Amino acid sequence: MSELIPESVPTLILGGSGYVAGELLRLLAGHPHLRPFAVLSESQAGGKVEAAFPHLVGCFPELSFSDRRELPGLIEGKERLAVLCAAPHGAAAQILDELLTVAERAGTVAKVVDISADFRFADSTAYEKVYGHAHGAPNRLSQFRCVVPEHLAETPEHHVGHPGCFVTATLLAVVPLLKLGLVEPRLSVVAITGSTGAGRTPTATTHHPARRSNVFAYNPLKHRHEPEMRALASAASGVAAEIHFVPQGGPFARGIYATIQARLTRSATAEEVRHSLAAFYAASPFVDVLAEPPRLQDVVGTNRACLSVAVDEDHLVVFSTLDNLVKGAAGGAIQWMNRLLGFPETAGLNVPGLGWI
User: Fold this and answer.
1) What residues are annotated to the active site?
2) How far apart are CA 241 and CA 54, in angstroms?
3) In CA terms, which of 118, 247, 278, 307 is 20 to 30 Å from 269?
4) Confidence class of residue 199 from pLDDT cuts 50, 70 and 90?
5) 320 C-beta neighbours (distance < 10 Å), count
6) What would the DSSP string read from start to end of 316-330?
7) Region 308-330: what's the mean pLDDT?
8) What is the mean pLDDT of residues 181-203?
9) Phi and psi for 161 in degrees, rounded to 5?
10) DSSP reduced 3-state for 65
11) Residue partners of 315: CB distance under 8 A and separation at least 6
């Protein structure tokens, strides 16, 4: 009897020349079911994908970047389509609206995971208040669900908006604390991130001489991801939460190390809180609850997130670490796509860490 060939779903990547797209491709190179057949990039259209990502040489030798005008031809004739969108905030919604319209006319069943911020809010007013411009496809908002995979047992019917790196690191720590009634709903978050979180185009704060041997806060207590944290934490936990967020830039390329502080609602030891978190994530293959504070280097390159706790009387500290490009972006998106398509959640994501970087 011949061996059954695993189902393969053609996969389209949007916004394909940035760091997140590079991580999507790195992970999809070893995925058993998702097959990248096209990568859209307006700035790189016509160029070889491997020229933009030399570390992927040999993985996609025949793949070149396409542009937006090619969407109808790329979609035509496909029964199913996986779409992973790494387009910029403010541009993703309009591109996805166009793509989904084409897919609907072609009779193609498309599943989308958007990694931008365009589908993180449930209504356009909330989005416009934070991002300062009109939403590109308000009619599509009801078709997207924004939540960390570990916090939703059922699979959304249509599409997913990825919560993002800072927000994912925070939600993984905060949601169980709120949902289990362990803390008062007023929390403080300080999170340090690597330079890749700002994208591939160099800026004054991501240029190597400015970042090397340096740590600095930016947009403290007024960062645009703070409203997302509040809204998504409240939705996932059922508790109206007040979250105060201070982001910091660190002298490394990838990863987030978040420190969350809160007041306990009842007397508990660190071991008891740790046990509660471990029980909450017992069925979550990518979340580890550790006895000691996590180390960032242990999760870089992986889809894992590590949590740990410390307690002093009624004061609780939770440490949360993840790779901003993987669990906080590309890996989390693939994790959701696996579920949307009915594949094992871990497919293509059981990759080892990068170790010494």
Assistant:
1) 165
2) 44
3) 247
4) confident
5) 24
6) EEEEEEE-TTIIIII
7) 98
8) 92
9) -105, 125
10) strand
11) 261, 263, 264
- In degrees, rounded to 5, the angle at the alpha carbon of residue 131 between the alpha carbons of residues 126 and 135 is 65
Mean pLDDT, residues 115-128: 96
Q: How far apart are CA 333 and CA 64, in angstroms?
A: 22
Show Cβ contacts of residue 17 under 8 Å, excluding neighbours closer than 6 positions.
41, 43, 44, 52, 65, 200
How many Å is the Cα radius of gyration of the chain? 20
Q: Report the phi/psi class of residue 132: left, alpha or beta, with left for phi > 0 and alpha for psi in -120 to 50.
A: left
Which tokens sit at 33?
A: 């079911």
Q: Encoding tokens for residue 194?
A: 């690597």
Residues 36, 16: contact at Cβ < 8 Å?
Answer: no
Give residue 6's pLDDT.
57
Q: Which whole number is the average pLDDT over 270-285?
A: 98
**Strand 109-114 relative to strand 80-85, pairing:** parallel
pLDDT tens digit string along 156-180? 999 999 999 999 999 999 999 999 9
Q: Which of 270, 240, 243 is nearest to 258 (CA)?
A: 243
Q: What is the mean pLDDT of residues 94-119?
A: 97
pLDDT at 4: 44
Residue 131 and residue 92: Cα distance in Å, rounded?
A: 13
DSSP character string of 235-263? HHHSS--EEEEEEEE-SSSS-EEEEEEEE
Fill in the amino acid letter for 221.
Answer: L
Q: Which residues are bridge partners to 264 per DSSP? A: 183
Spatial separation of the C-alpha atoms in residues 245 and 174, rounded to whole Å: 12
Tell me the CB-side half-sphere exposure of residue 211, using CA atoms within 13 A.
21
Q: Which two tokens stand for residue 228?
A: 């997302």
Helix H or strand E encompassing 39: strand 34-40
Q: What are phi and psi of 176, to 5 degrees?
A: -65, -35
* Mean pLDDT for the stretch of residues 197-214: 84
Structural domains in the chain plus CATH codes: 9-146 (3.40.50.720), 166-324 (3.30.360.10)
Q: Residue 245: which of 312, 190, 174, 196 has the closest Cα?
A: 190
